[in-house]
Specification:
Structural class: alpha/beta
Strand content: 15-25%
CATH architecture of the largest domain: Alpha-Beta Barrel
Radius of gyration: 26 Å
CATH class of the largest domain: Alpha Beta
Number of domains: 3
Helix content: 25-40%
Shape: elongated
Length: 493
């Protein structure tokens, strides 16, 4: 999906702030529904984004940026494409530009986080650490302005002195950015410290570009009219809301916030429809419930260990089942559209020795795997070590591996839930076809050199379950991924 290159307007806007673990796709869509004009994603680190591949997810109708470990780092959709701003954490101009070019066709704007005071950001020279290096700030922003088609903004905190703050923002303005968001607290201050409306106002009166006021949730913003009062008190062009929107995203509605139960159910529906990981969904719902966490519903939420259980806690069990069936049907339809991908890997399979086998960890000795047995046999026979080529099938994300030993290929016809398990199955086919021991319990065979067992082979469940904060619980990426190898919080800062 392509966004036109017209600039995003930052005048007189209500904006959802970037918030760690909160600003994922369901929350952004919910904020748009309730009246936000612009939504920021959570801060995403440049180094992590540069490892990602852009993937069109046909099942969810989204664009996903997927890390090598198969986690969805950033997910977006057409509904928000003209109003979502991608915020990155960076300390390097060239990396920042590479990330901007990676995502620019799927977002409306690019923002650099220059205000996060947390150690995980500042220790890498990112976030608030940039405030003490104006030269680096200027280089990053100038590089982005010249190198990307999207409007560039940054988000800062105020410096210890107003004079230094004004000097910095004037220098930032000269880079050509479209707007600047100002959190009216110093680097060391937290939400319980009063926000400085006076400092934001002085910045707004100094600059000609739009100034976006941020930091008013604790002291000022309880409802829609408070947002307008905060904007007037700061003389800002627009207001960015973090915690108050996290507690109830319907705060953007002119007619007043909606009942929390209604808001939470709507959020859950988006979370299920867009395959948000249940732990992220649970976290956001807990932020909304706040003092109600000890209520019966809060306790059910606390106990939930899946999206289905969350839905059941809020009376949405039937919705979950219906949505899951719809996603499964879409997946099946797309698979049927490409029958050649369903039956075999996308390669010439002639001459491959095949068996219908799977690797069951429970049937093997604790310190031995078929891959270890095969590698040891190749060493004794002075053969080249095994080479594994693995493919991932579209939509159901199952894996199949082909192992090559002495120029002969071996493959299990059964697809498996992880790359490691598929490789073990291929090794079993090779060993059985040669009449060799494979390490099964009670099986006699030559001793192996002591080697560290591959931990992933112990896990017969979904490997993504170890990555709870990331989106992607039902359907990760409907595309063909190739792999080969030898044996071997919160605040909108």
């Amino acid at each position: 999906m392509i966004v036109n290159s017209l600039s995003l307007c930052y005048h007189n806007k209500l904006i959802l702030a970037p918030m760690v673990r909160v600003g994922t796709l369901p929350m952004r869509l919910l904020a748009l529904d309730y009246g936000a004009d612009i939504v920021y994603c959570e801060e995403l680190i440049d180094l992590k984004m540069l490892q990602c591949k852009r993937v069109v997810n046909e099942v969810l109708s989204t664009v996903d940026f997927v890390a090598p470990d198969d986690r969805v780092v950033f997910r977006t959709c057409e509904r928000e494409q003209s109003r979502v701003v991608f915020q990155m954490g960076t300390s390097d101009a060239e990396r920042a530009l590479a990330v901007a070019r990676l995502v620019e066709n799927d977002v409306a704007g690019i923002d650099v986080n220059m205000g996060c005071p947390k150690e995980y950001s500042t220790k890498g020279g990112m976030g608030a650490a940039l405030l003490s290096d104006p030269d680096k700030i200027e280089k990053i922003l100038s590089t982005l302005v010249k190198g990307t088609q999207r409007p560039v903004t940054c988000k800062i905190r105020i410096l210890p002195s107003l004079e230094d703050t004004l000097s910095l923002v004037k220098r930032i303005e000269r880079t050509g950015i479209a707007a600047i968001a100002v959190h009216g607290r110093k680097r060391e201050e937290r939400p319980q410290h009063p926000v400085s409306c006076e400092a934001i106002k002085a910045i707004a009166e100094t600059l000609s570009i739009p100034v976006i006021a941020n930091g008013g949730s604790h002291d000022h913003i309880q409802g829609y009219l408070d947002i307008q009062d905060f904007r007037q008190a700061t003389a800002a062009s627009s207001v960015m809301v973090a915690r108050a929107a996290m507690w109830n995203p319907s705060i953007f509605l002119k007619e007043g916030p909606r009942p929390l139960e209604e808001v939470m159910q709507k959020y859950i529906r988006y979370a299920v429809q867009y395959d948000n990981h249940y732990t992220n969904t649970k976290y956001c719902l807990c932020q909304m419930l706040r003092e109600q966490l000890e209520s019966p519903q809060g306790r059910l939420l606390h106990a939930a260990q899946s999206s289905q259980e969350i839905c059941e806690a809020f009376g949405l069990g039937a919705f979950y089942e219906e949505t899951t069936r719809e996603l499964d049907a879409r997946r099946a339809k797309l698979l049927a559209r490409s029958p050649e991908e369903v039956e075999e890997p996308a390669e010439d399979t002639s001459g491959i020795i095949k068996m219908a086998v799977k690797f069951d960890r429970r049937a093997y000795s604790p310190q031995i795997t078929p891959k270890m047995c095969l590698l040891e046999w190749c060493r004794r026979e002075k053969l080249a070590q095994p080479v594994y080529e693995t493919v991932q099938r579209p939509l159901d994300r199952l894996f199949c591996s082909v192992v090559t030993v002495a120029e002969q290929k071996y493959q299990s016809t059964l697809w498996d839930k992880s790359k490691k398990l598929a490789e073990q199955a291929a090794a079993i086919v090779c060993l059985r076809s040669q009449g060799l021991p494979e390490g099964r319990l009670g099986e006699e065979g030559p001793s192996l050199h002591k080697r560290k067992r591959e931990a992933p082979d112990q896990d017969t469940g979904d490997p993504r379950a170890q990555e709870p904060a990331m989106p992607g619980e039902l359907c990760k990426k409907p595309f063909l991924a190739l792999a080969s190898g030898k044996e071997s919080p919160l605040e909108g800062w």
